Structure formats: C-alpha cells, structure tokens
Amino acid sequence: MSEQKPGNDGQYYQHHVFFCLNDRVNGEDSCAHHGAKDMFDHCKARVKAEGLSGPGKVRVNKAGCLDRCAGGPIMAVYPEGVWYTYIDNDDIDEIVESHLKNGKVVERLLTPPDVGR
Predict the structure, then answer these.
(1) What confidence score (pLDDT) does residue 9 get?
(2) What are the tens digits of pLDDT across the range 38-67?
(3) Is the pTM higher than 0.85?
C-alpha cells in the first residue's frame, strides 16, 4: 500500500470542492440550468492557474445532486463544510482567491442554511 501524501491536518487535500452539475430532465430547476458546468470548468482552470491544484492542495470535482437545488447553483468546500451559491466567474474567482487560496470564507456567497431542495 502506498503512502498517502497529506495536506493540512493529515487530509489528502487541504480543500475538496464539489460542484453540483445535476440536470433534471423533467424540467425542474437544477444547477445545470444555471451554468454550473461552465463555472466548474472555470474553477478548475483558475485553481490550476493559481498553482493550487493537487495533493495537499485543492481538488475540484463534479457532483450529482447535492439536494440544495433551491439555492442553486451550488458548490460545497470540505473539510470545512462551507456551501456557496454563485452567479458568475467573478464569484468563482472570489471564492478561489479568498477561500481556497487565503482561507477566508466569502460570507456574501454563503448558501443560507435552511435552503434545501
């Protein structure tokens, strides 16, 4: 068994980001209908350009439904368990710069805790 390369606190990644890319085919609102795939691609590129990607750093992943559709589009950052609602590339850039790079949560983009499906 190979040795795991840890990040902070023994975690493999310092931050693990999940983008909901769910597309409801029945016409119900979903993150995919709000440009989630383009924002996911933008985030991955921005994280890489900032030199933040890889073991011990940041991993950006696609996810299915995260069950918070009413607040979409949604992304979640772990291990902190911070949920964001974003609108455009500027919001993604702010999350990358502030949270992923400098460890400061972007308060204005937090998904309200009571938002569900």
Answers:
(1) 64
(2) 999 999 999 999 999 999 999 999 999 888
(3) yes
The DSSP bridge pattern shows strands 15-20 and 74-78 to be: antiparallel
Which amino acid would we find at residue 28? Answer: E
N-terminal to C-terminal alpha carbon distance within the chain: 40
- Identify the domain containing residue 74 by its residue range: 8-109
C-alpha 79/C-alpha 76 separation (Å) is 9
> In which element (H, E) is residue 19 found?
strand 15-20
- Residue where the block lists tokens 């590339």: 89
CATH number of residue 68's parent domain: 3.40.30.10
Burial of 47 (0-12, 13-18, 19+ CB in 10 A): buried
